[in-house]
Amino acid sequence: MKILSFKLGGHVSFGPKVKKEEAVWDVLAIQNELQVLPSFSSSIVDGIALGFDFVEQIRKLVEAAEKSDRAESFKREFTEIEWLSPIPRTPKNIMCIGKNYDEHAKEMGAEAAPTDLMVFTKSPTAIAADGQTISIHADLSSKMDYEGELAVVIGKRGKNIPKNLAYDYVFGYTIANDITARDLQEKHKQFFLGKSLDGTCPLGPYLVTKDEIPNPQELTVVTKVNDEVRQNGSTKDMMFTVESLVSILSQHVTLEPGDVILTGTPAGVGKGMNPPQFLKAGDTVKVSIQGIGTLVNHFE
User: Fold this and answer.
1) Which residues belong to any copy of the Fumarylacetoacetase-like C-terminal domain (predicted)?
2) Residue 9 CB contacts under 8 Å (≥ 6 apart), including other chains
3) Helix 27-34 vs helix 52-67: crossing angle, to nearest 10
């Protein structure tokens, strides 16, 4: 199931993409008007905590709408909605993995890839949506960079999760662009400020449930800047797999439903080019991952 969050007329909702249509089912409206279920979460993060019971609830709501004589009234066309991040706000900072692809580690100047996890975080206030125009933050940085990544969305609270059970704690996947102010990284000698400027963590367009992506280590990741391919990698090249990341992180941090883990970026970032090519006002960045879609953002 491909789930998206949106706003329409001041009304915030979510729902699955309508099959073969550029539209979304407004499941909150279906539940409110048809009263299909005894109760239904109005928050997507609260729903995710129910695991795949949440997915079944959504399916029941869609089935009820389709059987009613008002099915069309519960659909919202993509052209009329304001897209939101599928996870509008994470319970804690977004957890990010650095240099998880060997070639990216090399282009960033490392002589060898890290043997242990390199972890940093981004503030939840950095979250942005597909289609959102993002500030280039010219008053703070002249070296804004892109990083296309697979993002993992946690579905169940867990601590000290065994690697072989890690996927039980994953709800699904989305796309992230870990936008980074490289000069702020260099200036402050740490990542948080350079990674947390407003709008520098677009997520989307969809949250795809894990049943649709049986192997997250077989996905292509392509990033384009103004339709020029800059990154063309595969998640098979991750040094720490999704199940390893979930397991290792949970040894140190209790994972919660709605937590987001950015799994690292392939080679091809602007800083790694010769000469470096950073983002500028007027640029458009597209990050595509097979099975999920394309995350598009404009910069000004």
Assistant:
1) 94-299
2) none
3) 60
Cα–Cα distance measured from residue 265 to residue 84, given in angstroms and rounded to the nearest whole number: 23
Residue with tokens 């999704």: 242
With CA atoms as reference, report the closest residue to 92 among 47, 43, 157. 157
Q: Answer positive or negative: Cα dihedral of 209, 212, 213, 214.
A: positive
Q: Which phi and psi (to 5°) does residue 59 adopt?
A: -60, -40
Per the CB < 8 A criterion, the answer to whether 258 and 91 are in contact is: yes
Question: Residue 67 CB: number of other CB atoms within 10 A?
Answer: 9
Q: What is d(CA 125, CA 203) in angstroms, rounded to the nearest whole number?
A: 12
Residue 68 Cα to chain centre, angstroms: 34
Q: What is the pLDDT of residue 260?
A: 98
Distances (CA, A) of 6 to 26, 45, 103, 110, 119: 9, 14, 36, 41, 30
Q: Name the stretches of the chain with pLDDT < 70.
A: 111
What does the block give as tokens for 73? 């009234």
Residue 165, CA distances (Å) to 12, 156, 251 in order: 34, 12, 13
Q: How far apart are CA 173 and CA 213, in angstroms?
A: 8
The three-state secondary structure class of 221 is strand
3-state helix, strand, coil in the chain (%, to 5): 30, 35, 40
Tens digits of residue pLDDT in 145-170: 999 999 999 999 999 999 999 999 99
Which residue from 135, 136, 221 is spatially nearest to 176, judged by alpha carbons?
Answer: 221
pTM of the model: 0.97
Between CA 154 and CA 249 the distance in angstroms is: 12
